[in-house]
Amino acid sequence: MRTSIATVSLSGSLTEKLTAASRAGFDGVEIFENDLLASPLTPEEVRARCADLGLTVYLYQPLRDVEALPEAEFVPALRRARHKFELMGRLGADTVLVCSSVSPHALDDDALAADQLSRLADLARGHGIRVAYEALAWGRHISTYDHAWRVVESAGHPALGVCLDSFHILSRGGTPEDLEGISAIPGEKIFFLQLADAPLLAMDVLQWSRHYRCFPGQGGFDVAGLLRRVLAAGYTGPLSLEVFNDVFRQSEAGPTAVDARRSLLTLQEEAGLPAPPAPAPPTGIAFAELLTPDAAPVSAVLGALGFARTARHRGKPVDLWERGTARILVNTGPAERRDGTRLAAVGLESPDPAGAARRAEALLAPVLPRRRAPGDAPLEAVAAPDGTEVFFCATGRPGLPDWRADFEDTGEEAETGGAPRIDHLSLTQPWHQFDEAALFHRGVLGLSPQESVDVADPYGLLRSRAVTTDDGAVRIVLTVGAAPTDDTAHAQHIALATDDVVAAARAHRAAGGTLLAIPANYYDDLAARYEFPEGELETYRELGILYDRDAQGEFRHCYTHTVGRVFFELVQRDGGHRGYGAANAPVRLAAQHAARGFTGG
Amino acid sequence: MRTSIATVSLSGSLTEKLTAASRAGFDGVEIFENDLLASPLTPEEVRARCADLGLTVYLYQPLRDVEALPEAEFVPALRRARHKFELMGRLGADTVLVCSSVSPHALDDDALAADQLSRLADLARGHGIRVAYEALAWGRHISTYDHAWRVVESAGHPALGVCLDSFHILSRGGTPEDLEGISAIPGEKIFFLQLADAPLLAMDVLQWSRHYRCFPGQGGFDVAGLLRRVLAAGYTGPLSLEVFNDVFRQSEAGPTAVDARRSLLTLQEEAGLPAPPAPAPPTGIAFAELLTPDAAPVSAVLGALGFARTARHRGKPVDLWERGTARILVNTGPAERRDGTRLAAVGLESPDPAGAARRAEALLAPVLPRRRAPGDAPLEAVAAPDGTEVFFCATGRPGLPDWRADFEDTGEEAETGGAPRIDHLSLTQPWHQFDEAALFHRGVLGLSPQESVDVADPYGLLRSRAVTTDDGAVRIVLTVGAAPTDDTAHAQHIALATDDVVAAARAHRAAGGTLLAIPANYYDDLAARYEFPEGELETYRELGILYDRDAQGEFRHCYTHTVGRVFFELVQRDGGHRGYGAANAPVRLAAQHAARGFTGG
């Protein structure tokens, strides 16, 4: 189907918006009136620019407060509309969006509304224009799609139809009964379809709509379910995104347009429309790769964690460290950003690496150039929104290229005791790309986003959201700072699973490792909240082990010191606990600030 | 009365919070449990630190989910409480806050709640502790202050009273009837009073409380009215601020604590408690002062606007430019921040400059050092939160020091035609200090904050709020960017009133000045919306004049080009129009971006 985006969804000048929409692969746009007013381009120049960019102007919007008015107010409204229809002729737009009246002078009179909309449609038809009438969720008298349809139906004018908007519909209720009326609308009378999602917030619907809309798949609405119903009704027009969002307004138009189109591709797939190659969710973490200007400090931590340097890349300065199935690459090769040690790449074990890469590419993930030596395994990789390189791997599987084969064994043996594997990775996201990141990991990688959690850092509230496979074999925690400036201020980490965190912590210490010191007050509080076997709490206190419990089970964890931007966590999950220690994160964050000397005591 | 602040209201480590509270002049604090848990200080060390800083620990908080529980759950809750009471003994805190249960296991049984609270109070009394019971607005069964009081009253325990919290009370309704129950509570049973304000948002009360609370006077609640009622009931305990706010969490603790205490001082004044010297609102703008490394470009603009360089400071490189009663100082002296031309100081005409300065100082405004030469007039000045220097002036008034006397006439004469005066000044605020700025201008300067307005810039939503005198003689527009990084990205401006903006614009052009070009599309839209006399719109189009209309009257305005961070606006208000052209601001901002070459077309 044809795809479109409203210019209001993107930042910048009209030219920048159009260029970004075209580059992301949209077929057309809705031109938002304010974007045109602020542009130095004439309507004819906008039309020509769109044509050059391969964009159709599917809609001009909005015309407000034109129906159900006292006649004395309808006349100037019609005059205004005539001006706009002439403008649309210059612009090459053939459909106008009319929003239901919010004017305090609007009358609660459906017959009057139908009559005036007919007169408006007469005028429009004279200009070759169709009127798409939309119920705003906060419309004064007409605020539901089925009410709008009743008015349009009774007007019975060929140039008058409805515009359906997923936000206005779903913000007022999304039960099957709420949506039943859609099938009553003949497909050819649905003149336009606008799509937006939103987080499920209990707030004034106007504020919610103007500031918090997001792209489908980033919020809590069942936009795909709505789309299926609209398609079933026979709608064949463009699928158009219309998102008002305070963060997107500040973001670069280019990446936002890509994020938008990825959202629409994923939505089409969910709604049963022709789709990109099917997802092939990963089955595990093949490796995590650290990029560092100096291997020594991080190697020391890995050694103390029981990792062995088992192999070295044949052609690059990359060491492979292993313990059990946990594999960590330490790369001292040239990096564009040599800002200390950081988690730069993740290898995901994939049932079909080439298929996963094809899907990623179809979903507009930037495919990374393969800079490999002759003989290296052909690794497929894309870049995540935060810049992390994501490799699709087949480790030790016959018939598939194996990254491990590029490495030469050192002869050192990895320990296997204590069930070590990577429990989760934690990656700090750029502030402007948090919603995009969740959508990327869901759509491109096939992971399931979990609930978003607030975490109190001493210097601002962080948000954190895990994306996981259902069996927990892959868990990535996406974290975002309190403000755009915090993009790289917060640490990343690698959490290693163990079946005995006390033993693992003691072994780390015995091997010369350090553990993050946790304040005694924390343990006094644990003693108040839970009863522990004799001596257990003293052990936790001594080692800096944190404790959490939920209905499923228990979670014990502790932290190493930080090297560059990276630290390690030792994690013991029991009884199917599914959390990440969010309740303990404020204490951990404060302790890390204190360890960096940020605080006075 | 004694003043206090909850540690959760300030950012940083517990030590930073306590230090900031003490420096801002609070008598005591509420210790928020999480702040203690995250602190490496022992409770005894916290107690000693507080004593050193002159702070009393008025409250320890919160104890959650202790009442109306099945006995099997009450026993561990009581065990938890015992631990906390022992901790409070070490901390030196004698009052604990107990929030009404949100536990899904809590029973809707007031008698059980009263009984268990009595048993809790028995335990507390054994430790010399009082229990202050507070109804959370989202409590499971007890969510109103009068319900909480009925339970406390029926318990009839000497160590059990209520804690009143202005947010929890006013978020559920603030009518006189809603608040009547307060007078039914004996003052000595009100164990604690927590004060917070909040903007009037229609949203889930828990989210509203956790993220959007602000200091009294910064939101929409009548906190002073509530305080008067609590005082009338006989409450004599501390006035304690408890604010959960996402922005304050990211801000430096020091300035936030000052903002908090200023809020409390202003609140005490409004509630009829002993107060700082009475406000002396300004009667006009004496001058605006531009700081610039190079006087030539801004002098050229002033000259073309009809200003004359009428005088020069006797001891400093400062020129006085005048036109009518509009006075602009151009200062080329040494500046700490030589980042191009900026609006650095504002002179406010004051009926009592010395009194205004005393009030400002009492309200914790930083008093600026007087660096004047012998013989200079003793000008009183303070710094606003954005760093702007605010001078309290008496221009040409016998018996009062006159800043004008420090200037020597050049002999040039100022024009007087066209009613020129400063209509308003627009100052960009640091992102973290927008609420503080509004409170500063209201409390310290005696201006009235107007409604906050959203303005769409092409690269993010701005917020704008005017602070004015009732007669409009002083109007200052405070603007804030979309993100913390935008603090200084946006321009400041000086708007000059004229009784004929067309003549003023023509004169400016004729004198060599340039006016900001406004896109033709804007005028096509004006033509659609309004009917103008023949030729008028063409004049606006030619000159770049923008137009707005409201129920009161009309507003016409145009803009010069920008010098450094500063531009000028010519403004014609008719019929008592009270706006600032917010509807036109997106077009103006886009045009300014285009003029700076930010956009592609």
Automatic annotation (TrEMBL), chains A, B:
Binding positions (Mg(2+)): H424, H493, E569
UniProt keyword list: Isomerase, Lyase, Metal-binding
Annotated metabolic or biological route of this protein: Aromatic compound metabolism; 3,4-dihydroxybenzoate biosynthesis
EC number: 4.2.1.118
EC supergroup of this enzyme: lyase
Amino acids binding a divalent metal cation: E134, D165, Q194, E242
Alphabetized GO MF terms: isomerase activity
Top-level lineage group: Bacteria
Keyword Lyase among UniProt keywords: yes
Cofactor: a divalent metal cation
Entry annotated with the keyword Metal-binding: yes
Function, as annotated: Catalyzes the conversion of 3-dehydroshikimate to protocatechuate (3,4-dihydroxybenzoate), a common intermediate of quinate and shikimate degradation pathways.
Family the UniProt entry places it in: Belongs to the bacterial two-domain DSD family.
Name of the protein: 3-dehydroshikimate dehydratase
